[in-house]
Amino acid sequence: MYNEEDFIMISALQHYVYCPRQCGLIHVEDVWQENLFTTRGNILHEKVDTDTYETRGAIKTVRGLRIHSYNYGIVGRCDVVEFREEKSGKVILPVEFKSGEPKEDISDKVQLCAQVLCLEEMLNTKIFKGAFFYGKIRRRNVIDIDDELRNQTEKIIASVREIVSKKTVPAAEYASKCRNCSIQSVCQPKAMNKRKLNNYIKELYSA
Ligand code: SF4
């Protein structure tokens, strides 16, 4: 069990999957800069996170629900949670809105799984599926919240906690993803790689 002052943001898990250094710079050093991708995401979430709910037929839809888990020490917000009355019984389905399309990495899935961990604890229930709505392809994708994803999410929570609690920002490793990173100008991954190379050469000749 964690105290509220030890909670980490669910968004930190996504940042960690994208790049551990990005996670450290944002959640330890408080660095933040917008770029095209973050701005698109912000605009979409302003429309979705409205703190409202509505009931249509057998589906109650809650928007912008604040969530947390004392067991995992995480906190965040769900874009949408659907409470559905189905023939098989009551089904709870978190739905996360994304401006783009499905990603190759697991960052979005980990975010959704972390939301499920919070909802299960808060509502004392079991949730087997979650969904994404992707703006670019205008389609809803439903995914299984299986044991493999739960284990991956738990490991990532532990890795993020290590960075945040020890206040250590991992070193930069320049990669193609750096081109789309909103905090590249602060991180300066190429300069850091150059510094590492210079230090290596110095050590080589001083040995
Ligand atoms: S610029 Fe690259 S190394 Fe630096 S935080 Fe972004 S993704 Fe990570």
Please explain how this structure is put together.
This protein has helices at 10-18, 20-27, 36-48, 107-123, 147-166, 184-187, 189-206, and strands spanning 8-9, 53-56, 59-69, 74-86, 89-98, 129-134, 139-144. Helix 1 packs antiparallel against helix 4 and helix 4 (107-123) crosses helix 5 (147-166). The chain starts with 7 loop residues before the first strand and ends with a helix. With 207 residues, it is an alpha/beta fold. Strands 1, 2, 3, 4, 5, 6 and 7 form a seven-stranded mixed β-sheet that branches. Iron/sulfur cluster binds next to helix 2 and helix 6. The site of iron/sulfur cluster (SF4) has 13 residues, from helix 2 and helix 6.
What is the gist of this entry?
It contains 7 helices and 7 strands. With 207 residues, the chain is of the alpha/beta class. Strands 1, 2, 3, 4, 5, 6 and 7 form a 7-stranded mixed beta sheet that branches.
